[in-house]
Write a structure and sequence with these properties.
The complex is a heterodimer of chains A (868) and B (214).
Chain A lengths: L12 E7 L8 E7 L2 E7 L12 H11 L8 E3 L12 E3 L2 H18 L4 E5 L4 H15 L4 E2 L1 H6 L2 H11 L4 E3 L6 E5 L11 H13 L3 E5 L6 H4 L2 E3 L6 H15 L5 H7 L5 E3 L14 E4 L4 E4 L14 E3 L2 E5 H9 L4 H8 L3 H14 L5 E4 L2 E4 L3 E5 L1 H4 L4 H13 L10 E3 L18 E2 L5 E2 L45 H7 L8 E5 L3 H4 L3 H8 L4 E6 L4 H6 L2 E4 L8 E2 L15 E6 L12 H12 L2 H11 L16 H13 L5 H7 L1 E4 L3 H4 L14 H14 L21 H4 L7 E6 L13 H9 L6 E4 H6 L7 E6 L4 E9 L6 E5 L40 E8 L4
Parallel strand pairs in A: 6-7, 6-23, 9-10, 9-19, 10-11, 23-24, 24-25, 29-33, 30-32
Antiparallel strand pairs in A: 1-2, 2-3, 4-5, 4-25, 8-20, 12-16, 13-14, 15-16, 17-18, 21-22, 26-27, 27-28, 29-34, 30-33, 31-32, 31-34
Chain B lengths: L3 E6 L8 H10 L8 E10 L2 E10 L7 H5 L5 E3 L5 E3 L9 H5 L6 E3 L13 H6 L7 E3 L5 H9 L13 H5 L5 E5 L6 H8 L15 E4 L2
Parallel strand pairs in B: 1-9
Antiparallel strand pairs in B: 1-8, 2-3, 4-5, 6-7
The chains are: A alpha/beta (868), B alpha+beta (214).
Chain lengths: 868, 214
């Protein structure tokens, strides 16, 4: 833009490269700063991290910078009472006083029992969580952290299965080559997600060139609205549909990528009557049946002629079958007719889509890319929060993975691909390199995970420990991605049963609004109200801060801070053959008022607490620092020095922090072997989850005597159908399934405070309204604009304005995003939309038995507000 | 002389509002003033439903009804087809609002602040003077970007600096900008190949915006 009236006096007119921070997509941006004021945000066209495109939230981000409602000075609660609607009676205090209070409280806790500190953080800035907070968490000595929305909205099971199968946080159709994509409650490329803007462009191009997109979704809005075929479905029933599809493909159509199953999965491993692999007595390795020699061999025997996938054999004196045979047997019980009854997807549709998909996958075909002949499987199925946000999450994710496995499309051209699992390194040097490797059973182990040292999902058996030592249940449900207990109604009961020897006495929160982003606020209220000290780094006085914070500390926005965006390499980096891109987020303006970046404040706290040495030791490890850039823990270091050491360790001495500040990001071309790595690495993925079986036995032994209700049948090696609480609801009155969905305009709980986004949300027919099928509404004598009450079967109520739509399942009710704010500190957002999460129960019954994900749909009834 | 035009691929468009908001930011548009909007609805009956998404803005018509209606000459059509408004000449009579069959013009009675009763932000302060209260406004195809870019020898539709803000930002690459008079341009080719259509051609104003149907 040209600033006409300022032209004669312009002293400065610059475009500063950085990374967006309005969601976890971290797109590359350029911020236009004129005479010290940011007046425009655009995408950085030089980067494959979005190719110059950004979404409405990213454009509107400058309103986040200049919002007059930002917290600009530290605030102290003077009203000792806490809770929803209680006036905290804030008093503005100096940073000196705030730091004195913070350090004094934390010091007391640490000397007593450091585990009594809970770190709560937003998932939106995952890198800040990983690299700003984890060194502090480790140095302090607490195992407790919680990303509340993570439990509800993230991929509790999707991350698990993507980790085990793709060495990645998630998976996406290889849009550049895919001809047939199926989404199960996933909005990759259509509303949000990791690498959101690269996905949006590639998915749009794919649709334009004729790719068929089939969306299983209760609503034809974002992905459903753009799909070639929208398949309305009852929430939480995706797995039975997929089981029927796979049954049809394997047992009726007899389509299967057998070479893939034989060499890239544990399908040929022999399973005994006990459900465990039959192992070689000398080496302990799983055995397979070589149909060339008609005898057993270890799975990795170089002399295997042909792996048997079917039949019955005898090994080590016991009867056994290949795992793949057991899978095929298991699938026979899932007919499209039964699936249709449960899901409402017609049996003929299930069969047809299965046939189209299997045919589109072109099993056995190859394609030449950059001179390499590679497997070509241009069909993919993906899943995310919509389909996986239910108590059958792991099985649903296993099912989607299975749909991919049987056609051999994992990380091959056109198939389901991860966010890069393999990097052979930046050509200019450094240690930015990783790749999956096999464990003793030949199964895939990811090369890098969220944070260095964090247990990555794999087929290796994790440890079980009771009594528990952390408030989350990771040591008894080790597959869990994020704990849920901090916000549950029955947490105290669980902690007692599992003998947690202490309770939380202090919370340090980084930008997380758990009272809105988790399930019913009642659980968070119950647990947090009694915590004596809560310090909250925030941009606004959120509902969480208003309800609980003793101290609110003015944080910097993403346009005022320095962070290392590429440090979590398992998502967000460009996928497919699109160049590597690694970006810095840097201040485009200096923080105004008394705003301070959270990580720097915590570093100062660490110095004053006497734990800075441990902080730097942890940073050295998790930041992949290497000689000569290792930081001496005995010396003082700034956040800038840590960032500088990190980038030089990763990319060599020439690419220091100043280089990144000038250029914003580093890009370099990918090699075929990095993207379509599957044929090049000898690792297998699980079709048969022996580990789940073993783990279930161990967990059951540890937990059952303590009286915790767990659906143990879910710890099964093969995917199965498990109804969720809303499916089991017997009340005929509560006739609708309420669900929430990702709206392209919103992330987390903060985007409704952006006036531009608020304007768009008000213009959109659905964003702030409660959407119901038009015929269902008519039956209930309801119409557009009616103010309605939605009441869950547990009696929880929300109010909102009705919008009728044809493109929503007649048995469902859709509510977008996380709206319904009530904090006075967020006046633009306040009172807009309806707070869906209020309808969700937060207890063990509504938590899945494997990864501890919360059930995100609820059975409800609806009536006009005046009838209440 | 080129005639600038825009092609919007409705198959690719996601309805994300990025164009609308980027436009607002580019032109410092106050609350409730839109030079570009996104209309969302649906057609069909469950389960055979189609979501309809139409981004709309001034069509930069080749035979513009607004120009004819303007009594002061404030609204005029440039040689390159862009219809502009000279705020100094606009008296706010709003005849053009009535004349525009596409309802793409807005009268600004006052410049509101985005945070009610909290004053203008630093960004909004910066934009003071870009618009004048008491005048009519509408999309100008980012004529400032175009002209500045052309002066530097850049190509609108290809080079970021010379291309309208709504086009360069589009996350689905659903917008194509270029010269409608050049039969070899990408926009001309898309209109021919994809059978792109003008909205309501029966209005007879010959819009410069075309939509690729889906």
């Amino acid at each position: 833009m040209k600033v006409k009236n300022r032209e004669p006096v312009l002293k400065e007119d610059v475009w500063i490269p950085s990374a967006c921070g309005m969601c976890y997509g971290d797109c590359a941006i350029l911020a236009h700063r004129v005479d010290g004021t940011v007046i425009k945000i655009e995408g950085d066209p030089k980067s494959s991290q979005g190719y110059g495109k950004i979404c409405a939230k990213g454009v509107a981000g400058l309103q986040n910078l200049y919002d007059p409602n930002r917290v600009n000075v530290p605030l102290k609660r003077t009203n000792p009472e806490k809770g929803i609607g209680v006036d905290p009676k804030w008093e503005e205090i100096s940073w000196d006083e705030a730091m004195d209070i913070l350090v004094e409280k934390l010091d007391k806790i640490r000397k007593d029992d450091p585990r009594k500190l809970l770190i709560q953080a937003t998932t939106i800035h995952g890198t800040h969580l990983a690299y700003g907070l984890f060194p502090f968490i480790a140095a302090f000595g607490t195992p407790n952290y919680w990303v509340s929305g993570g439990g509800v909205h993230c991929g509790a099971g999707a991350h698990l299965l993507a980790g085990m199968n793709h060495a990645s946080w998630d998976m996406v159709p290889d849009w550049d080559y895919c001809n047939y994509a199926i989404t199960f409650g996933a909005s990759h490329g259509h509303a949000a997600g990791h690498s959101a803007l690269l996905s949006a462009q590639l998915a749009a191009d794919a649709r334009a060139r004729g790719m068929k997109l089939v969306a299983f979704d209760p609503m034809a809005n974002f992905v459903g609205g753009k799909a070639t075929e929208w398949v309305p479905i009852i929430p939480g029933t995706d797995s039975i549909v997929i089981l029927a599809m796979v049954n049809h493909i394997l047992n009726e159509l007899n389509i299967c990528d057998e070479p893939f199953i034989k060499t890239k999965t544990n399908g040929p491993y022999l399973v005994g009557a006990d459900g465990l692999f039959v192992r070689d007595e000398a080496t302990g390795k799983p055995l397979i049946w070589d149909q060339g020699d008609d005898r057993t061999k270890c799975f990795d025997d170089p002399g295997i002629g042909d792996f048997a996938l079917s039949g019955e054999f005898s090994a080590n004196g016991v009867g056994c079958k290949p795992a793949f045979q057991l899978l095929k047997d298991q699938l026979r019980k899932f007919s499209p007719e039964e699936a249709a009854e449960i899901s409402t997807v017609p049996a003929s549709t299930i069969r047809r889509i299965a046939e189209e998909y299997a045919e589109a996958a072109r099993v056995g075909s190859t394609i030449m890319i950059k001179g390499k002949e590679l497997p070509y499987r241009p069909a993919a199925a993906v899943i995310f929060r919509g389909a996986q946000g239910h108590t059958n999450v792991v099985h649903t994710c296993m099912c989607v993975t299975l749909l991919n496995q049987i056609v051999g499309n994992l990380d091959v051209v056109g198939g389901a691909i991860g966010w890069p699992a393999r990097c052979l390194g930046y050509p200019g040097g450094g240690n930015f390199r990783f790749e999956p490797y096999p464990d003793e059973d030949g199964m895939l182990v990811p090369g890098r995970w969220f944070v260095r040292g964090m247990h990555a999902p794999s087929c290796q058996l994790p440890e079980i420990k009771v009594p528990i030592e952390e408030i989350g249940l990771r040591t008894v449900f080790p597959l869990q991605n994020q704990p849920t207990t901090p916000g549950n109604l029955d947490s105290e009961e669980i902690w007692e049963k599992l003998e947690l020897p202490y309770r939380i006495e202090a919370v340090v929160n980084y930008g997380c609004n758990s009272i809105m982003s988790y399930a019913t606020p009642e659980g968070v209220l119950k647990n947090f109200k009694k915590i004596p000290f809560v310090a909250s780094f925030d941009l606004f006085v959120t509902e969480f801060a208003e309800s609980f914070a003793d101290l609110v500390l003015p944080d910097t926005s993403y346009l005022e801070q320095l962070t290392l965006e590429g440090v979590v390499p398992i998502y967000n980096l460009p996928y497919g053959m699109h160049d590597w891109a690694w970006h810095l987020r840097q201040p485009v303006v200096k923080p105004s008022h008394q705003r301070r970046q959270c990580v720097e404040v915590l570093m100062e706290a660490a110095r004053r607490l006497g734990i800075f040495e441990q902080y730097i030791e942890t940073a050295d490890h998790i930041f992949f620092l290497e000689d000569p850039y290792l930081l001496d823990p005995k010396e003082d270091h700034t956040w800038e020095e840590i960032c500088d050491a990190h980038v030089k360790s990763q990319f060599g001495p020439e690419k220091d922090l100043n280089w990144f500040k000038e250029h914003g990001g580093l890009t370099w071309p990918k090699q075929v072997e990095e993207v379509y790595w599957r044929p090049f690495l000898d690792v297998r993925v699980p079709i048969y989850h022996e580990m789940f079986l073993k783990l279930g036995k161990m967990c059951r032994e540890a937990i059952e005597p303590r009286g915790l209700e767990v659906e143990w049948a879910q710890y099964a090696p093969l995917p199965d159908w498990f109804p969720c609480p809303p499916h089991k609801e017997r009340s005929m009155d509560h006739d609708l399934y309420a669900f929430s969905y990702r709206d392209i305009l919103h992330t987390g709980t903060w985007t409704m405070q952006l006036p531009y986004i608020d304007e768009a949300s008000r213009m959109n027919p659905y964003t702030y309204n409660i959407t119901m099928n038009a015929d269902t509404a008519e039956e209930k004598d309801l119409k557009d604009g009616d103010i309605i009450i939605v009441e869950s079967s547990a009696g929880r109520k929300i109010e909102g304005r009705l919008k009728c739509m044809q493109g929503i399942h007649p048995k469902c009710l859709g509510i977008a995003a996380c709206s319904g704010h009530w904090s006075k500190g967020m006046p633009i957002a306040r009172g807009k939309g309806s707070h869906f999460n209020m309808l969700l129960e937060a207890d063990q019954e509504h938590t899945d038995s494997m990864v501890q994900g919360i059930e995100t749909s609820a059975r409800v009834r609806v009536y006009k507000a005046q009838e209440d | 002389m080129a005639r600038w035009g825009l092609v919007i691929d409705t198959l690719k468009c996601l309805g994300c509002y990025s164009c609308m908001i980027s436009c607002k930011e580019e032109h410092f548009l106050p609350p409730n003033v839109f030079w570009s909007r996104v209309l969302i609805s649906e057609e069909g009956k469950f389960p055979k439903v189609r979501k309809l998404i139409f981004p709309v803005q001034c069509n930069q018509c080749d035979d513009p009804a607004c120009v004819e209606a303007c009594p002061t000459g404030a609204t005029s059509e440039r040689d390159d087809g862009i219809v502009t408004i000279d705020y100094d000449q606009c008296v706010g009579c709003r005849y053009c609002l009535i004349a525009c069959p596409y309802q793409q013009r807005t009268f600004i009675p006052r410049i509101d602040e985005y945070y009610p009763d909290q004053g203008l932000t630093e960004y909004e302060e910066f934009g003071q003077g870009m618009l004048q209260k008491g005048t009519v406004v509408k999309c100008n195809f980012c004529v400032e970007r175009l002209d500045a870019g052309l002066e530097k020898g850049l190509v609108p539709g290809r080079d970021r600096e010379a291309t309208p803000a709504c086009v360069i930002i589009c996350p689905a690459n659903a917008r194509y900008f270029g010269d409608l008079d050049d039969p070899e341009s990408e926009v001309s080719r898309l209109i021919a190949e994809k059978k792109a259509i003008q909205l309501h051609p029966e209005f007879g104003t010959d819009p410069s915006i075309y939509y690729i149907p889906h």
